[in-house]
Task: structure prediction
Amino acid sequence: MAELTQNEKRLLAVLVKEHKADAPHLATMLDTTPEAVVQWAHLAEDKGLVCLERLIEKAFFYTDEGNEYLKNGLPETQILRFIHDNISLADLQKRAAFRIGFGQLRKKGLISVNNGMIFKVGNPSTDEDEAALKNPITGGQRTKDLIKRGILQESETVRYEISITSLGLAHAEKGLDLREETGTLSSEQIISGSWKNANLRRYDVTKLPRKIYPGKIHPYQRIISEMREILLEMGFCELYGGIVQQSYWNFDALFQPQDHPAREMQDTFYLKETVPLPKGYEKVKAMHEYGGDTSSTGWGGIWREEKAEQCVLRTHTTSVSIQHLVQNPNPPVKAFCIGRVYRRETIDTTHLAEFEQLEGIVMDEGVHFGNLLGILREFYHRMGFEGVRFKPSYYPYTEPSLDAEVYADGIGWIEMGGAGVFREEVTAPFGINYPVLAWGLGVSRIAMLRLGLKDLRHLHHSDIAFLRNTPALYRMTGGE
Amino acid sequence: MATISLPYRYLERLTRADRKTILAKIAMIGSDVERIEEDHADVEFFPDRPDLFSPEGVARAMRGFLGIEPGLPVYTVKPSGISFTIDPALALIRPVLGAAVIRGIAFDDESIQSIMALQESLHWALGRGRSKVAIGIHDLDTVKPPFHYIASPRSRKFVPLDFSELMSMDEILEKHPKGRDYAKIVKDFPLFPLIVDDDDNVLSFPPIINGERTRVTIDTKNILLDTTGTDRKAVSDAVNIICTAMAEAGCAIESVEINNVQTPTLAPVERIVSVRECSNLLGFTLSAQEMATLLEKMRFGAQQAGADTVRVQVPCFRADIMHNWDIFEDVAIAYGYENIQAKPPATFTVGKPHPVQVLAGLVRGVFCGLGYLEVMPFTLTNGETQFKRMQRPERGDVLRVLHPISTENTEVRTDLIPLLLEFLAINRHRELPQRIFSVGDVVHSCITHQQAAGISTHAGADFSEAYACADAVLHELSIGYTIQESEDPAFIDGRRGDIYISGKKAGIFGEIHPAVLNAFELEHPVAAFELDLRAVPGFPDL
Result:
């Protein structure tokens, strides 16, 4: 048999004697309010211990207007008293109850008006209306009319009758422990030792708990942190750099031609701010125009300083990597950066104008393309992707270039990011004499896989329910 | 990426292999198969390989890659006897001209489509939307050589393609759809480029539109190709790519005389490359002979020249080869990326987190401990959110993007609280209390730094909650601070405090002003706190 609460036990104890009683009566017996009794009875009814009957009783009340009419008669009764032969409308209008009374009489067809004179129709009487006013009947047409006229009001009162069921009786027969129960233990009970005699209430442990939401890290930040930790474990040094970059570092130093489509206003967020070029930019200029001292032809044409001075919102974190290399030209350099980058894209479910990019670089004596594949395979394995493969690709500042694809269960091969060896045209102007392996990937793509996201905007313009409901330990696809 | 449509029947005939074999390998030369249809496949190629922007070019590459026909393709070019004159006045307008004669065309609708598609892809990849290179093809038999590339008055009239009446060049820029699309390339010049024949018939108004007279039809037998532009290499690449594609289709290519030079020659360019340098870059050892064989698979001519050197003939259509490493990439592609041993580098290094990110992590931990949920709002926002709805005066150092995509994203955020309020507005109907925080980049002038902010909303959110939260975070970050009454209009007067650290204002907290709550359409009080993380002792100077 189900656990009974203290209140249910007390209710049963009274009902064993009363069998059936209404709530106010039980409330007096139990020294509580009728509302509390009904509430207990509801719960007890769910357990089959009592039967709760809801009885509705109707009553009529007179409004202030109604009370007045009760005393003086309805307005139509009052006016009817004044109507006699040869009375004009004008005379009648002088009477106090004229407006309502006259209207009612016309409406009921008891009088007629002809050439400004009033005539009774037949032998008019308002007796039935007066009777309805004195003894209203639920559902009666005249009563309804009076309610409509705001003279009468009908009210409902609900009364509860509670009776004990056979199951309730069975419980009572087994004996009811009516000792006072303790819910939350008080400090006093604990210290004094009175808890030893306390009757600790038993709780229904199968009920759902109250919901609380812990403070926690954003699921997207968790993925970023995981990648960060993997790269730190793999011996990479973390970089941090500004969102605003000179075109020189974002494009030119990376041998991106000045007429490259990615540099156009349609694809990049330009700013009106400009920054003077750093010392030694002439070598970059020479590389673009004719390939400097290398075996390269360069892009040809004229490289313009003013184009390189313009500031942009960085389109990739490679702008941060190349500056790190320029400041640290001695091997080995192993560094990574995870940061927000900006593309002037029309925003939809899979494209945002700003997104996180992860980028890594390795510069060392004797490193090669095969090492790049090795780093990528290791990184993606640690991210939980067993299948990793590479295919040829193109990036303006790397040669050879590749795209990495990973295998996700239920989806297939997914392109994850690009990589390559920095072109000599990129490294030579800065006196970087060893190969630089570089790779990048869109963090949000992994987030979409991991979190099963259909719309990237939810990472930023989030429904708080999504953040609250996504567990800290979360794996959907692409995980283990 | 350029998407090229490859009709199977044509591709199989040119490649001399079946579609299954071709499609199985095509991604390994550098492409993405977009769609496999009943009669054709749509395949994306990278912008550095415009020579693959036609079925003819793809078939040529695949014949090498599949071992059907390795080595350098050789094209013979006979002089056509046709010449061009160039008006010196074009030097500052559109100086470079390339041209060729293509004979023996056997057009059907498909092959006309194919050459038009190649022309458009080249306009995109090499031509930068026709500004750098523009290509025109003409029915040679409708006009009379020699031809003249001239700088013409803008009032000159002719009938442009797809029109039937005479129009001046100024009118074409205004009324012709192509004129409107490309007007910006020429509209500032006093004279316009024009190609005419010896009877002064107009062939083309480059880079805008051809004349109707020389329209290419299914009956066209011989073509005159004109290519104009601002960059000699790009113009010559375009001519070479079109001519060699047409030669692959079975046409004969003839040169024309421009400035006393016969062009094009379709001859390869020679480079001597080091085998060791290649092996070092790629990470596997090759002999000179092995390297030469791999390069022939990629349609280079290649012979061992010395113990460590290979002589390479780069085909004229390979616009992407600017440096020896570009050749080495082709060695890797021919070798197969799947065959390269993936091996992490051996050098021992120690990982090192950046102090800014370490601090951000610490701040996240403190806020989480206080029961705050992390959110990651956008960094692009707008003046309406940042200042107007906040009742704050516009900051002088706010960074505006020059060409925003929408009115939503016009500025880079200078503070986090406005974005957190926006987040609360989105979640207005969700269960309270809501306590959220964010740590991230903000930009003042051109300088990026990190700020942290937390806000709380529920029926009892007030000044004392904001103060307690600020105090807890500052305490955990070991920051000593003083408070002064603030004048920030985003907060209620008398319920707002400025946080001073080492005598400098570094943060704000308090109860958000009800007018601000109204502006964000929020219905409950909000307690807020924001801190500039540069105030944390030992924060790195960036």
About this structure: The CA atoms of residues 134 and 172 of chain B lie 17 Å apart. The mean pLDDT of chain B is 95. The first strand of chain B starts at residue 2 and ends at 7.
